Amino acid sequence: MPAINNALVARETYSRIVARENWAQQEAGVVVVFCIVFVVAVGLIGLWISKCLAKRRAKKQAVVG
């Protein structure tokens, strides 16, 4: 049984990695849209959490005071 030549395996793996195209660079508009959607979603979730916390504080003040 022949031994596996590690140099050939490494060269083949490297050529596959290098041959890949940079999708994010080609589709920059899509990446920008994803970033904008992410920022808006995080902002809306933060707003929702702050409203929930404000309701909880108000309810606690009504019970205590």
Would you mind describing this structure in some detail?
- It is a single chain.
- This protein has 65 residues and is mainly alpha-helical.
- It has one domain.
- Helices cover 85% and strands 0% of the residues.
- It contains three helices and no strands.
- It has helices spanning 6-19, 23-26, 28-64.
- The chain starts with 5 loop residues before the first helix and ends with a helix.
- The model has no long low-confidence stretch (mean pLDDT 85).
Would you summarize the structure shown here?
The protein is an all-alpha fold.
Structural class: mainly alpha
Percent of residues in helices comes to: over 70%
Number of helices: 3
Low-pLDDT windows of residues: none
Q: Tell me what portion of residues adopts beta-strand conformation.
A: under 5%
Q: How many beta-strand elements?
A: 0
Number of domains: 1
**Major sheet characteristics:** none
Supply database-style keywords:
3 helices; 65 residues; mainly alpha
